[in-house]
Write a structure and sequence with these properties.
about 230 residues; 12 strands; mainly beta; binds zinc ion; two-stranded antiparallel ribbon; Glucose Permease (Domain IIA)
Length: about 230
């Protein structure tokens, strides 16, 4: 089980802010709407979501104790996870053969971008190993006109395609999926923050807010639709 746990998921490093998702609240006008940030959706084999359980778990099986937007435990989430992990089908082999693009989920301005870090961090039995490298992620953060921010973590080395200050439109390429930083396998950690820098789950559901922040959330366990036009 420990191996299984370390094969899935991630946690972004600094400068991530409040690691806890918001409790269900009315946050006013919804942001976005966000388009799914990976155009090649068929290359994503699973999603591991935000933990809505405010309890910080301890012990050997702590990662199992979480609640996703529907209240489901691991592997739909893991303890204290503050984003959604979209895992690349085929792992490193697929990454090496041509990793999928990551695109902006909405119009905005790039406020942070970092590249050049080792991108083959991987799971070992109880921890992530970056083979002696720094363990810092390649990432992009986009701020949107409504004050919300989206974060794109663990990108492939030398794939970051935007610089700080660049204006991006929904669907513009930001980089490619990698496994840099605290990452057990190639995937995108996609995170949404409200204007108060509180982590919010874009999925609507009984443990989240009633309005989806995706343009089209899709049916349960399907991936949201690309494109930023609400349907
Ligand atoms: Zn993650």
């Amino acid at each position: 089980m420990l191996l299984a746990l370390t094969l899935l998921g991630c946690a972004p490093e600094a400068p991530s802010s409040d690691p806890q998702p918001a409790e269900p609240t009315d946050t006013g006008a919804p942001p976005g709407p966000f388009g799914f940030p990976i155009p090649e959706r068929d290359r994503i084999y699973t999603r591991i979501g935000v933990d809505h359980d405010p309890v910080v778990q301890t012990g050997l099986l702590a990662s199992l104790l979480c609640a996703d937007y529907l209240g489901r435990p691991f592997p739909n989430c893991y303890d204290e996870h503050d984003g959604s992990d979209f895992m690349l089908d085929g792992s490193f082999e697929a990454m090496d053969a041509g990793s999928p693009d990551i695109v902006a989920a909405a119009d905005g301005v790039v406020v942070e971008a970092h590249d050049g870090e080792y991108d083959r961090c991987h799971a070992e039995v109880t921890a992530v190993s970056c083979d002696g490298n720094s363990g810092v992620a390649n990432y992009v953060i986009v701020q949107h006109s409504d004050g919300w921010r989206t974060k794109y973590w663990h990108m492939q080395k030398d794939s970051v395609a935007v610089a700080v200050g660049a204006a991006v439109r929904c669907g513009d390429v930001l980089g490619r999926i990698g496994s840099s930083g605290n990452s057990s396998a190639p995937h995108l950690h996609f995170e949404v923050e409200d204007p108060d820098l509180v982590v919010v789950d874009p999925y609507a559901g009984p443990r989240s807010q009633p309005t989806s922040y995706w343009a089209d959330q899709g049916v349960t366990d399907a991936l949201p639709e690309p494109g930023c036009t609400a349907r």
